[in-house]
Amino acid sequence: MNLKIKEISFATITFSAVIMWGGFSAWRILFNNFAVDMFDASSVDVGVIQSVREIPGLLAFGVGALAIYFTESKIASVSIVVVGLGLILCGLSSSLLMLAGATMLMSFGFHYFEPTNSSQLLLLAENHKLGKVQGKLQSYESMAGLVGAGLIVLLTFVLDYKMIYFIIGGIVLTIGAYLSYALPSNRGKEENRKIKIKKKYTLYYILSFLRGCRRHIFTTFAIFLLVKNYDLDITVISILMFANFFITIFTSRIIGFLSDKFGEKIILVGSSFFLVFIFCGYAYVSYLPLLMFLYVIDNMLFGSSLALRSYLRKIAPTEDITGCLSFGMTANHITAVVIPIVGGILWIKFGYETTFLAGAAIVFVDMLFSLKIPKLPSQ
Questions:
Q1: Alpha carbons within 13 A on the beta-carbon side of 183
Q2: Which sequence spans correspond to the domains of the chain?
């Protein structure tokens, strides 16, 4: 593949990711305050909706089947359309039930976009630059979130939640429709895709599962803790997200560089080690500024997922990548429909500390399995 084609392909992948993450970040920023302010949602209500949101992730193995018949570029662009439509329907929601349905639709688009766009990037990159190109893409995704957070901060002064959902959703849907029409095939006629679960990918699937468990605890309940227990309003939450996206613009590239230089094992083990203390901090720290700082650090460490994808690319042939990523997404979400509900019940029965301590235990197990990653050649 010549340099010009590579540049065009990376530009397309990046633009698609920017639009997707701009839309998803809008939902992420608005959701907790929208649910609490409009419907007086409890921790169990939020847990149930978050569980519903994760059902499409559990069904992400369908991406592998779709990739047999459709190219990754087509699946990714249609997924953007679905996210835009889901955001619009969130704005139209008149009940928690309708909000859950709209959120689930939006989630289908997001969870079917991620493995296909990641697959395109991994197939494009050279092994010794896997961390670099993924870090660069994540940096652009953070920029998209930064712009989205800034836009929402401004819009909350003049518009209500529903209108913000309409505006962001309409923009995402329109661009997704254009990409679906305009993007050419990104696959040669001789290329094919396979969907097989192979033993050699077992460690990848286990790590995907464990990282999913701890991620769903934190993403469901960290912001909810700040909103419910500390009464942070939508403006403060948006500013927190703004700071988070700004920092990860730089840290994503650093993590990518370190992954290429020192290997995937160091990045995955190191991130899990620090996350144990972050989860414990959310269980025991009551000083609000420190909790907000821990939230930013946690999101920064989520960028370490690029090392897991780099590990997969180095052990899997081209035809297995999309299928493995889709099954990895499913493994990541096996407990996603259970953990938010269980975490909400633990919160009510025993206090929020128990929910976050459970997350710390999961992260520790994840660290132990990360130690099993072998040293792999970069070429």
A1: 26
A2: 3-185+192-370
pLDDT tens string 230-247: 877 777 877 787 788 788
Which amino acid is it at 276? V
Q: From the CB of residue 162, how many other CB atoms can be counted at a distance below 10 Å?
A: 16
| CATH 1.20.1250.20 corresponds to the domain 3-185+192-370 | yes
**Rg of the chain (C-alpha set):** 20
Single out the residue of 32, 124, 33 nearest to residue 73, CA to CA. 124
Whether residue 365 has pLDDT greater than 90: yes
User: SS3 sequence, the chain?
Assistant: CCHHHHHHHHHHHHHHHHHHHHHHHHHHHHHHHHHHHHHCCCHHHHHHHHHHHHHHHHCCCHHHHHHHHCCHHHHHHHHHHHHHHHHHHHHHCCCHHHHHHHHHHHHHHHHHHHHHHHHHHHHHCCHHHHHHHHHHHHHHHHHHHHHHHHHHHHHCCCCCHHHHHHHHHHHHHHHHHHHHHHCCCCCCCCCCCCCCCCHHHHHHHHHHHHHHHHHHHHHHHHHHHHHHHHCCCHHHHHHHHHHHHHHHHHHHHHHHHHHHHHCHHHHHHHHHHHHHHHHHHHHHCCCHHHHHHHHHHHHHHHHHHHHHHHHHHHHCCHHHHHHHHHHHHHHHCCCCCCHHHHHHHHHHHHCHHHHHHHHHHHHHHHHHHHCCCCCCCCC
Both tokens assigned to 59: 């069904």
| pLDDT, averaged across the chain | 83
| Whether pLDDT at 377 is above 60 | no
CA distances 272 to 17, 205, 212, 226, 337, Å, are: 26, 17, 12, 23, 23
**Residue-level pLDDT at 1:** 43
Give the number of other CB atoms < 10 A from CB of residue 50. Answer: 27
If we measure between CA atoms, which residue out of 160, 150, 79, 158 comes closest to residue 114? Answer: 79
The torsion angles phi and psi of 145, rounded to 5 degrees, stand at: -65, -35
Dist CA 28 CA 33 (whole Å): 10
What pTM was estimated for this model as a whole? 0.79
